[in-house]
């Protein structure tokens, strides 16, 4: 009897081992299958074959819903949709699904940030195409805890033609100018604020002691009479030039004036004075 029990126990252990190995083998086979689909999709993405790559990722998500690659598959599926014309709404929903899925996965933080940026781009594109409600997705991200997302939303909002709506970005842009250490970001914020609210930028610049010390002065005297006499904060004048379309600068150059050269000369001139004389007029530009 003891021998029978011992044999049965050995058989039970053996069957348990077989079941365990079988489960491991099935899991390994599944891992190989989903990894293979994911790698095939990545190759298609590299070749910019967006529709075919999306089909591969759809297959992975359908056949292997519990795969460790699910989060990445959701992200790249949304990316594939965003690259297909007319599928912007699906892409936006796809990115939102990925963000919900990856909310607790710190390893996906970079992809979550990329997804938020992509949602801003897609929502802006839909708004420009007449889908007005989608602008809410951009507005919402003006309060996003991630500053990269928050800044990007503000920069995008600054291009909205309706100034009343675009001004929603003003607090974020002012915050960048006042607190951000990155010089390039501060300059971008100044240009964006100049588009949205020149008065807000002017008051912000004039409040800075170094800005009050440096003003661009412009006088135009025609036929002996002073016709123009203005003072502009130097930073504001420089940014206005940066924001000016290149074709407008080209028109001025055709008239014999290179604005880039003029500002460079003003910046390095010891006297900080530049005079442009024409037949009956004199243009004086200097920095105080």
How is this structure best described in words?
This protein has 288 residues and is of the alpha+beta class. The protein has 15 helices and 4 strands. It has a 4-stranded antiparallel β-sheet with strand order 2-1-4-3. Helix 2 packs antiparallel against helix 3 (70-82) and helix 5 runs parallel beside helix 7 (147-157).
Give a short summary of the structure:
Helix content is 67%, strand content 10%. Strands 2-1-4-3 form a four-stranded antiparallel β-sheet.
Highlighted features:
288 residues, disordered N terminus, alpha+beta, 3 domains, Serine Threonine Protein Phosphatase 5, Tetratricopeptide repeat, four-stranded antiparallel beta sheet
CATH architecture of the largest domain: Alpha Horseshoe
What name does the CATH topology of the largest domain carry? Serine Threonine Protein Phosphatase 5, Tetratricopeptide repeat
State Rg: 31 Å
Structural class: alpha+beta
Mean pLDDT across residues = 79
Elements, N to C (H/E) = HHHHHHHHHHHHEEHHHEE
What is the CATH top level name of the largest domain?
Answer: Mainly Alpha
What would CATH call the homologous superfamily of the largest domain? Answer: Tetratricopeptide repeat domain
């Amino acid at each position: 009897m003891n021998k029978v029990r011992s044999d049965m126990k050995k058989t039970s252990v053996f069957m348990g081992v077989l079941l365990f190995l079988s489960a491991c083998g099935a899991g390994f086979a599944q891992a190989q299958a989903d990894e293979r689909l994911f790698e095939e999709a990545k190759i298609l993405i590299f070749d910019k074959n967006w529709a075919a790559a999306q089909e591969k990722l759809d297959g992975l998500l359908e056949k292997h819903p519990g795969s460790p690659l699910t989060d990445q598959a959701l992200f790249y599926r949304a990316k594939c949709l965003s690259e297909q014309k007319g599928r912007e709404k699906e892409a936006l929903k796809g990115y939102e699904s990925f963000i919900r899925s990856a909310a607790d996965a710190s390893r996906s933080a970079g992809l979550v940030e990329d997804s938020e940026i992509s949602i801003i781009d897609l929502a802006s594109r839909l708004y420009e195409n007449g889908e007005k409600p989608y602008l809410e997705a951009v507005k919402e991200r003006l309060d996003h805890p991630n500053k990269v997302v928050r800044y990007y939303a503000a920069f995008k909002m600054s291009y909205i033609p309706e100034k009343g709506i675009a001004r929603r970005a003003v607090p974020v842009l002012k915050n960048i100018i006042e607190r951000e250490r990155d010089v390039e970001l501060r300059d971008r914020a100044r240009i964006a604020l100049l588009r949205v609210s020149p008065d807000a930028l002017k008051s912000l610049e004039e409040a800075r002691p170094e800005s009050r010390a440096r003003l661009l002065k412009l006088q135009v005297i025609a036929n002996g009479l002073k016709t123009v006499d203005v003072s502009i904060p130097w930073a504001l004048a420089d940014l206005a030039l940066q924001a000016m379309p290149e074709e407008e600068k080209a028109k001025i150059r055709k008239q014999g004036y290179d604005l880039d050269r003029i500002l460079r000369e003003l910046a390095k001139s010891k006297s900080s004075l530049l005079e442009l004389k024409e037949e009956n007029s004199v243009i004086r530009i200097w920095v105080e």
